């Protein structure tokens, strides 16, 4: 894929890392050129140098979206990471593959460690853990203020699987409760499904085998349920699920899989909400990097909140960066700072991505609340 790059520079216009640093050598075009060079002679760079360069990618996928030649730079970088693993990658893999054990306990423990005592190597991970937490999210500081009053009958009686994702399942159960409440109101027949992680974070970090195992398990759950629609409420999970195409031997079934993916905000787009209780006057929305095209989460919130939604990001990445947040936290912080510049003045920031919630909650200015949009929905 690197050889198909024509160096047109379209990717440079959308790369958050380049925008934050002004260093073109960190941009997608340079990485594609590097991969092409290494494909010709891997001995040109030492393994440690390749691992370091491979770590300097947020994995946001914006470059792949705009590339006219179909070059997937994050995919190329993932290949480098797979070929040149390091400690940071091992730590990231452990964090994702043992989420059920590590996340609930880790988030609680991280909040007990003063920031001044967090070691440099683990500091970024601990900060995000502490920001995510295992508590009630926005509540009780800010109670849900969007109450659904009427639902469309478009999907009433339709069978669907709910893909909740790791965060909602393990440390943010109120997201799952609110999602189920909305689906109940919509009349959707929610089927049980023992899904695992989407595998997107592992795939981007270069752990292809582990990501593949999770993906094949999820596909088997879908097949076993009769190939129904799959509802998600995390944009990053949706992106990970949509990346399963190569795992299907039958192109027709792969297309059925792609078409089965939908978001909760699309299903609920014609739901009527009333605003009640104490509502912040300045609410902002963060558009996740993986929200390609029309962002259904933003459209749902805009319809419900109207003029209260005063700001939103567009090309600004939160700086989560996956494994990069461990390898180059100072660069991730610069990306994150640009995001907060765009959100300045907001009292509450909402988004539809679990990774963005973790990152923004860990870096929010004093007095600013951060949460998933589902946390604003009253459970009925």
Can you describe this structure?
By secondary structure, the protein is an alpha/beta fold. The protein folds into 3 domains: 2-84, no CATH class; 148-267, Glutathione S-transferase Yfyf (Class Pi), Chain A, domain 2, CATH 1.20.1050; 272-376, Rossmann fold (3-Layer(aba) Sandwich), CATH 3.40.50. It has helices at residues 16-21, 28-40, 47-54, 62-66, 73-83, 87-97, 99-110, 123-132, 166-170, 173-186, 200-204, 208-224, 235-242, 251-260, 264-267, 296-305, 324-327, 329-342, 354-363, and strands at 146-150, 159-163, 189-191, 229-232, 261-263, 272-275, 283-286, 309-312, 348-351, 369-372. The mean pLDDT is 87. Helix 7 crosses helix 8 (123-132) and helix 8 packs across helix 19. It has 19 helices and 10 strands. The radius of gyration is 20 Å and the shape is globular. The strands form 3 sheets. A 4-stranded parallel β-sheet has the order 3-2-4-5, with helices on both faces. The protein has a 4-stranded parallel β-sheet with strand order 8-7-9-10, with helices on both faces. A two-stranded antiparallel ribbon has the order 1-6. Strand 9 (348-351), helix 19 (354-363) and strand 10 (369-372) form a beta-alpha-beta unit. Residues 1-25 form the 4Fe-4S ferredoxin-type domain. InterPro entries: 4Fe4S_Fe-S-bd, 4Fe4S_Fe_S_CS, Aconitase_4Fe-4S_BS, Cys_rich_dom, Helical_ferredxn. GO terms for molecular function: 4 iron, 4 sulfur cluster binding; metal ion binding; oxidoreductase activity.
